Amino acid sequence: MIYAGVLVGMYTLHLMLKMHWITTGIVTVYMLLRVREHRRLYRQSNEQKLRFGEVTDYLDTVLYAFLKEGKVETALEDTQAALVDGPMREAVVDALDHMHMTFDESNVMTDALHFIEKQYPCHRVKAVHDFFMHVENYGGDATKPVELLLADKNQWQKCIQLEQKQRRKMFADIVMSIAASLIICCIILYLPVMNIDISSNIISQVLTIVVLILDDMILSRAQKYLAVDWLVIDNEDEKQQRQRLKRYMEYDRHKEIRLSFLLALLAMLVTVVCLIRNRQALAAIGMVLALIMANQHRIGRMLSVKNLKKSIQRAFPGWLMDIILLLQSENVQVALTKSQESVPTVLAHEVEHLVDRIEMEPESAEPYHRFLWDFQIPEVHSAMSMLYSISMGSSNRADQQISELIGRNLAMLDAAERERLSNLSSGMYLLFLAPVMTASLKLVTDMAIFMLTFLMNGNLAVMSCVHARRKKNESDCKSISGCVSDTFYGSCGT
Questions:
Q1: pLDDT of 37
Q2: Assuming Cys at both sites, which of 55, 75, 226, 437 could form a disulfide with 66, CB separation 3.0 to 4.6 Å?
């Protein structure tokens, strides 16, 4: 059925774009070969949406079950019974089988939960499992942490669903953009001027092939934005975090200043040579380049700090979430120490220093205020101030402060995720414009071919008319001049 639709579509394009049968055959073969890739991306898109739905259902079910039962194994059994048949239910069954059949390992439960985490590599699944193990090992009231995890899950689910909706809308806009661009390409082929038909021109036919292939590539690229893994889309690359942190930590100001001086000197020498040779334009470019090179150490440092700051703003709310969960059963200092086990790479160095400073000055506010001070992030400083207040306040006041901290952190998480998802989908806006650019290329080329054909036909007509006049063959002259527009050439007798 799909292949029949491709054939019908190609025949429609054949008529619209006045394609030669050879051109139509080439494009048709290409499109038929591409059907398999488009179907694969479509299936992948549906599978990823299904996996995301499975994870959200699992988190809802297992959290409520754990709140009711208080035991991981019992919660998983209730979850197994509640879930519909599918990959997630099979993963839960595998985890339970491992618990029931393994007796000689100390981390049986942790290893069992890894079965689910491996198949569904979502950091929220891991966070829930880590919380389960903490409660299983140390006890404590799980009501507030479960409510917090559910609120975080609901916010994350809403954010991802909104992003899915926006991407589907953008995909539809891209399809409409491709259709509109092809209609624009048709216009010049049907201009009623001197019965000129440029569709037989080989350049026009080749460009038609190029445009259709490019449009297919644009459509395929747009499909990839719908086929992403929604479980890990908001995860930042650990390798990238390490590189940004290393670049920031290893910055040598004096070395960079020396490099800036040498580069600026080289650019100035080039500028002087250009001035001597009277190359004013090149000299102006050299001056601008020299100015940039003289400040490259400042520009590089500014970009490094900016990129690292973005990574911190995305990583901090997740780390703070771990702290808040630990605060349900631990004090602030112990929670900070335990959080080092799962702290993001970009925060690891600062958290280590924070813990060391607190051990040296346990009642001082200075370690909290100095945390990430170089980056001047108001949300971070506000959260750390609240952590200090919690560490020094009474239990009643602490509960209120934790609740306020939870609200602020959920807002930070939502803002960070929305910004990251927006950045990841920004390429779709470029894809929306791409078909217009390809169509413009063909349109401009077709216009040039049309004008050349028009002028060549006009010149031939004029030359024939002159030849006829020389022979005083008025009848031939009139028959020829009748083929030429009176607007441009007038009558043969004028």
A1: 92
A2: 75
Kindly state whether residue 119 falls inside one of the protein's structural domains.
yes
Instruction: Give yes or no: residues 88 and 138 share one domain.
Output: yes
pLDDT digits (tens, 9 = 90+) for 405-455: 777 777 877 887 888 888 888 888 888 888 888 888 887 877 777 777 767
Answer with the one of 386, 403, 424 that is the final residue of a domain: 424
In the predicted model, residues of the chain with pLDDT beneath 50 are 477, 480, 483-494
Quick check: is 245 in a domain?
A: yes
Q: Say if residues 77 and 160 touch (Cβ distance below 8 Å).
A: no
What are 172's two structure tokens? Answer: 């539809």
Number of domains in the chain: 4
- List b or e across 437-468, with b for residues whose CB sees 16 or more CB atoms inside 10 angstroms: ebbeebbebbeebbeebbeebbeebeebbeeb
CB 192 within 8 A of CB 409: no
Q: Considering the chain, what is the average pLDDT of its residues? A: 81
Residues 46 and 194 in one domain: yes
Name residue 90's amino acid. Answer: E
In a domain, 429, yes or no: no
What pLDDT is attached to residue 480? 47
Same domain, 12 and 76: yes
The per-residue pLDDT for 237 is 64
Of 424, 446, 477, the residue at which a domain comes to its end is: 424
Phi and psi angles of residue 370, each rounded to the nearest 5 degrees, phi first: -85, -5
| pLDDT on residue 411 | 81
CA geometry: angle 306, 308, 313, nearest 5 deg: 95
Whether residues 277 and 355 share a domain: the answer is no
Q: CB neighbours (10 Å) of residue 244? A: 22
Say if residues 277 and 308 touch (Cβ distance below 8 Å): no
Q: What is the CA radius of gyration of the chain?
A: 34
* Residue 353: φ, ψ to 5°: -65, -35
Q: What would the two tokens of residue 467 be?
A: 């030849």
Condensed to tens digits (0 to 9), the pLDDT of residues 281-337 reads 888 888 888 888 888 888 888 887 888 888 888 888 888 888 888 887 778 888 888
Report long-range pairs for 490-494 (Cβ below 8 Å, ≥24 apart).
492/465, 492/468
Which residue range(s) make up the domain with 276? 238-300
d(CA 284, CA 277): 13
264 and 384 within one domain: no
Structural domain includes residue 448: yes
A 10 A CB-CB count for 102 gives 13
Same domain, 462 and 345: no
Report field, pTM of the whole predicted structure over 0.85: no
